[in-house]
Amino acid sequence: MRIVFAGTPEPAVVALEALLESEHEVVGVLTRPDARKGRGRSLASSPVAALARERGIEVLTPETLRADSEAGSQVRAWLQELAPEAIAVVAYGKLISTDLLDVARHGWINLHFSLLPQWRGAAPVQAAIAHGDDITGASTFRIEEGLDTGDVFGTVTEVIRDDDTADDLLTRLAYSGADLLVATMDGLADERLEAQPQSGEATYAPKISAEQAHIDWSQPDFAIDRHIRAYTPGPGAWTMLGEQRLKIAPVTLVTAGSDAAALFAKKSLSAGELYVAKNDVFVGTATTPVRLGMVQAPGKKRMDAAAWARGNQPEGILS
User: What HEC string does 253-286 produce?
Assistant: First the structure.
């Protein structure tokens, strides 16, 4: 089956590679325009664009797909010339104009990293971890006008581990989701797969702002643990120590029966209060203190919290 692929970041590369290794033919790639990255702010292609060009696939990088724009008209003409039977979408990052939805016979087939209708929107993996879900997964569905509301072709499930960061979970979902996407394309090509309406209560996972990643130390220890893992690595959970903004990588919960549990049975910490031990740094929460993992000060590399404390002699309350 002739396929155009629309995607941008690293997780989408896994799906593109899977399609390239399948019996289907990827005839073109849509991706975000080159963006400035790094300290030098030089222009860099998206990971999907880099792979496509390496494989000799034609790449289009429109600023917009709006029907009333010149770029949108160019995309429609390009797609009509390529004549794909389906357009596979994985984390493309741009709104698809409704006038383009019928340009391929099977439509635009999106791989979404949740079990729809759970966590519709831009940040389903982060939402699943932050809300303490035990199970998540990936779904393939046909894009329509609503936000992730289209009929579903198939799903795969994934257990969320107690120490999963968003990056850990998304990496696993990228691979299982890629297999699901290929299987969906196989089923469409064979005319044996029919999409089914979504059922159940919808929940939403909008795009994350940096402000949302701010740590609230007045929450219970388990909620803080989930929050930090959900926003690792991006945008990065953060807190303030005086005027200094620190990024915090995953923390460790204090377990019953441990030396730390015995210590804090006798000594209490207020929310955000630091306690520097010989080889550990703890922070108070609404319940039991948590052990800091990695800390990153502005302009510095991430370092172990104990090493950070030895070099900075931190005092005060994290806020």
Answer: ECCCCCHHHHHHHHCCCCCCEEEECCCCEEECCC
Known binding-site residue numbers for (6S)-5,6,7,8-tetrahydrofolate: 114-117
Upstream peptide bond of 289 is cis (omega within 30 degrees of 0) = no
Predicted confidence (pLDDT) per residue in 191-203, tens digit: 999 999 999 999 9
Residue 130: per-residue pLDDT: 97
Alpha-carbon dihedral of residues 2, 31, 141, 203, nearest 10 degrees?
180
Whether 82 contacts 4, CB under 8 Å: yes
The closest alpha carbon to 13, from 177, 258, 187, belongs to: 177
CB 309 within 8 A of CB 229: no
Q: pTM, whole model, 2 decimals?
A: 0.94
What pLDDT digit, counting tens, does each position of 135-148 carry?
999 999 999 999 99
User: Which tokens is 263 given?
Assistant: 């210590």
Q: What is the pLDDT of residue 38?
A: 63
What are the structure tokens assigned to 238, written together? 């953060």
Element (H, E) at 153: strand 152-159
Residue 131 in tokens = 């809300």
Which residues line the annotated binding site? 114-117
Provide the percentage of residues in the chain whose pLDDT is more than 70: 98
- CB count, 10 Å around CB of 243? 5
Q: How far apart are CA 16 and CA 48, in angstroms?
A: 8
Residue corresponding to tokens 């831009």: 122
* CA-based torsion, 273, 277, 281, 284: positive or negative: negative
